[in-house]
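Case study 2.
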Amino acid sequence: MTSLQHPEAIRHFQSLCDACQELTTRYHTPSELRLYADGYLHALRRSSALETPEMARLESLVERWIMDPSSFIGPDGDVSTLYSHPHRDW
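Prediction:
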């Protein structure tokens, strides 16, 4: 597994994880989480906040993490309700 070594990269990963988990509490879909993460990573690339190798490791880790449903819990703590809003039919 690719691990992050740079403290700033670790902080960005944690911030992205926290934000995506918050988005799931508002019933955002996996594709919306992916768009959010892509935008976050794009902003980091554009700002040159991280060195190229560390940025590549962060992108790889986020890719694996965001695609793994076990990374998230539903708004009520139940994985089965992760992306389905109880009061909306999409």
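The mean pLDDT is 84.
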